[in-house]
Design a protein that fits this description.
This protein is mainly α. The protein is built from 6 helices and no strands.
């Protein structure tokens, strides 16, 4: 059971963290979302978030937030998992909670969509897999 949970956590954190890095790079390469058709999403950000003229003239600030809060925590947790650090399960728990909070914000701004729903479920799986470790200890 522990071995399966360990593999699941490594795969999840690596997948989510790599996806966040790629997403951040896409936001920096195409800051106004023309190439991927995300221009309407930028307008939704401006409509729903505070200080749109400061933070949401393009996707660059959002890319940094995605990189540090999702990508950084997930990839940092992956490193802790591979090193078998005693705090790895706490880091996974924090990653799952952060991911669910991020997706909750996405739902508020953009509404429900398939990709956000899938990542919310992945956050739940991260939290539950971390909780399994706490129960076993």
């Amino acid at each position: 059971m522990q071995y399966t949970n360990d593999i699941l956590q490594k795969v999840l954190t690596l997948f989510i963290g790599t996806g966040a890095v790629i997403g951040a790079m896409m936001m920096w390469i195409d800051p106004i979302g023309m190439m991927c058709g995300c221009e309407p999403l930028l307008q939704m950000l401006r409509d729903k978030m505070p200080w749109p003229e400061l933070f949401f003239t393009n996707f660059i600030p959002s890319g940094f937030v995605l990189l540090f809060f999702i990508g950084g925590t997930q990839l940092g947790s992956t490193i802790l998992l591979f090193k078998k650090h005693r705090c790895a399960s706490y880091a996974i728990l924090a990653c799952g909670i952060l991911l669910m909070l991020w997706i909750g914000l996405e739902w508020y701004i953009f509404g429900f969509n398939a990709m956000s729903n899938i990542f919310f479920v992945l956050g739940i799986i991260e939290v539950l897999s971390a909780m399994c470790i706490f129960v076993v200890k």
